[in-house]
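Dig into what follows:

_____
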Amino acid sequence: MRVRLIVNPAAGSGRVTAIPDVLEIFSDAGWNVDLVQTSGPGDATRAAAEAVAKHTDLVVASGGDGTVNEALQPLVGASTALGVLPAGTANLLAREMRMPLRAREAAQALIAGERRVVDVGRADGQRYFLLFAGIGFDAAVIHAVDEDLKRRLGPLSFVAASAQVMAGYRGARAEIWLDGRRLRRHLLMAVVANTRLFALFPLTPQANATDGHLDVIIFHGVGWWAKLRHLASVLLLQHQRAPNVERARIRWIEFRSRPPLPIELDGEPWGQTPMRFEVVPNGATIWVPASAPDDLFGRTTGPQAAVSPAID
């Protein structure tokens, strides 16, 4: 097994200090590992692209969901699989896979892992996402998070940023196109999801990363009461049937708003509206532990199965 391990030493949790142990576990399993450390934005993408060019079997991204998203970009449509060694703040992909969050246990889970072919999302035909795209309030929070505070406080930094953004956030009048159907709403927040967890909450619990669709949830309304009601419904896991919340399963969706609303992909800032999102069925191969749920990531295709991504 030829493996490129991409390590982000600036990842939030400090678990990357266990890399020597991880390398030992991989070596004992007979994996031939090429280690690359990132030093700035884009490094993980370049390292993953090099791995594809060398026909590497597996790229393992050690960092947070942002590092994983960077590594994903050149792997869409390639036979090289993407694995994760959780070392970030939220580690949502690892949690979706039910992967251990401790480095040694996560490495052992990877050794016993297998390939799964999954859908990915694509934003404006340019950037891929594996987890979700956020439009509006949550993206404003992501844009507002202080990176130094994030390293010190972890998830609490998002609470601080949320409090900062909440007071002045108003949303925007939006035109939303879902597979050709038009909605007009005063949009507070929307999430276009390929998986289920969002800010550690199961926001789209019916999502399936192998069904050829994206799951969308739209929160709309005006004023403080609407914002607080939506916040409470999510915290209490009542948002699926709350007022002014709409859900859909779509192949594509486009947001246009006045004023423009911020956007984030897999927890990282990425532009603003207008923007179109679409599903890329069977877009990438991921490497999951045996614990990964079949009803989210599909059934195994075998450790060395061939990949035939469907790219538009």
